[in-house]
């Protein structure tokens, strides 16, 4: 049994990681400040089922609090670092917050972990670190030209992880997630918004002309990767579905799956959003033996079923 800290553990991805870690018999500490970026009651619900588990401990606090981190990390073996100010759009309106939480917060975590017995940090990074497309699919050698403060802050966090390994021997791996979806997903993400609208036969609004493409990755594949990379791999790895569709195609799939009468309308594009994302997962497959399993149609069906059940 390992003792594991999950930062941002009450959020979408963090709560799934905790679920799996507890099922595997680990002791888990969840550190989350229940930030109000989206309704904190959703986050409380995400971790509701763990509260009775004797191997689960909730610490309400901030990753920018070095004193608190030091006191938690004392007996921790591994850290899954999911806490972040997520969202490209919010970073365009409030770049200081993304920097503060994602870059400074990660630096703070690394500093606190330096003097502890932590064996490895599994850092949640993002496809946003690529930004401007030079070629597709993105492999890990693709140039990094983030298009948003969010992308910059996630890239800085990756570099801090690398430098702390090189300078102080603190092991880490950064997993570059490509647009993640599935049960408990953030309410600000397209699949969640489109599904809600489709089920209510309401208009689906697309930013721009809908021809941007995204590599959507199902949550189960992300969780599988996290567990494998806990013991294997260092540096950066793409964790993506390896297949992209346009936002127009996404909306049509969601309308069809839900037998919806929704119509699609278009509004002005959002600053900071990448035109295309598509992962090459060859490095993760060749070196570590991870590859995605869930195809988009199957994932969207599973998500809709979950959504209907929950609402
Ligand atoms: N969801 C995606 O599509 C996606 C894609 C790429 C990368 N990521 C990364 O994955 C990680 C998890 O994302 P998510 O979608 O689960 O987001 P989320 O917002 O659901 O989860 C993040 C959690 O961190 C907490 N948090 C925020 N600031 C904090 C702070 N200062 N101290 C402590 N806790 C804090 C929030 O309250 C929240 O519960 C993030 O690092 C994000 O950048 C997500």
TrEMBL record:
Q: Does the keyword Isomerase apply?
A: yes
Q: Any idea which UniProt keywords this protein has?
A: Isomerase
What EC number(s) does its UniProt record assign?
5.1.3.2
CDD domains with a match to the protein in the record: UDP_AE_SDR_e (cd05256)
Q: Where is the signal peptide, in residue numbers?
A: none
Q: Which residues form the NAD(P)-binding domain?
A: 5-302
GO MF annotation terms: UDP-glucose 4-epimerase activity
Listed name of the protein: UDP-glucose 4-epimerase
